[in-house]
Specification:
Shape: elongated
Number of strands: 6
Strand content: 15-25%
Helix content: 25-40%
Order of helices and strands: EEHEEHHEHEHH
Largest sheet: 4 strands, mixed
Radius of gyration: 22 Å
Distance between the termini: 68 Å
Structural class: alpha/beta
Strand order of the largest sheet: 1-2-3-4
Number of helices: 6
């Protein structure tokens, strides 16, 4: 090992997670931390390490019971996550002496929506995946969902859908909603914009 100099003092960085919850699992408690990312951050694993360490320190200093921490990144970017999810990207000879830290990433595009027990969350994930894939057929299924679930999927996928573009009410029929949405866009001569947002190639929509 060669010493190459001092390490700069740490700078002030964000230490607040997007979501923190205490959960019970088989009678035991765990703290769940979730960080939403729509872009790549090469320092993400160090941010998670910092969040976890800060949470552990706060628990110790409170002199109460220390609960284990599980952290996840909820990724909603267009490209597949390709950044390190472990600290083991180091010289192999040093690996036994370096503590590892994992970065679990839940990719919205590839997660299995069937495993979600909450119907509203399952709807949001399935609609988001159809939007990412540009699947008009997937979006036009004859089923009812909450309007807010559709709007949330639009937010996650950066699809600019206005509330007034959808049928009225707290619940919408997806088939009717998509027909109305595309009809309104066509009337306003904005169809190509919506096609681009949904990543649908020109000529694949059979309704026109």
């Amino acid at each position: 090992m060669t010493l190459i100099g001092n390490v700069d003092d740490p700078t002030e960085i964000k230490r607040y997670r997007d979501v923190v919850r205490k959960a019970g699992i088989h009678g035991d408690y765990v703290i769940i931390g979730v960080e939403h990312q729509s872009t790549f951050d090469k320092n993400m694993i160090f941010r998670i390490l910092n969040y976890d360490a800060t949470t552990y320190i706060n628990q110790v200093e409170s002199k109460k019971e220390v609960y284990p921490i599980g952290s996840f990144v909820f990724y909603t970017g267009d490209e597949e996550w390709n950044l390190p999810e472990t600290l083991k990207s180091i010289p192999s000879e040093m690996e036994p002496n370096i503590n590892d830290w994992r970065l679990p990433v839940v990719d919205l595009k590839t997660m299995d929506a069937r495993k979600l027990m909450n119907r509203r969350l399952r709807d949001v994930v399935e609609i988001s995946q159809s939007m990412f894939a540009g699947s008009y057929d997937g979006l036009r299924e004859n089923r009812k969902i909450e309007t807010e679930s559709f709007m949330m999927a639009g937010t996650f996928t950066h699809t600019n859908i206005r509330r007034e573009d959808l049928p009225e009410g707290n619940e919408i029929n997806m088939c009717k909603a998509m027909d109305q949405l595309f009809q309104r866009m066509r009337d306003e001569e904005k169809l190509n914009t919506l096609k681009e947002l949904l990543k649908v190639k020109l000529g694949t929509l059979s309704i026109f």
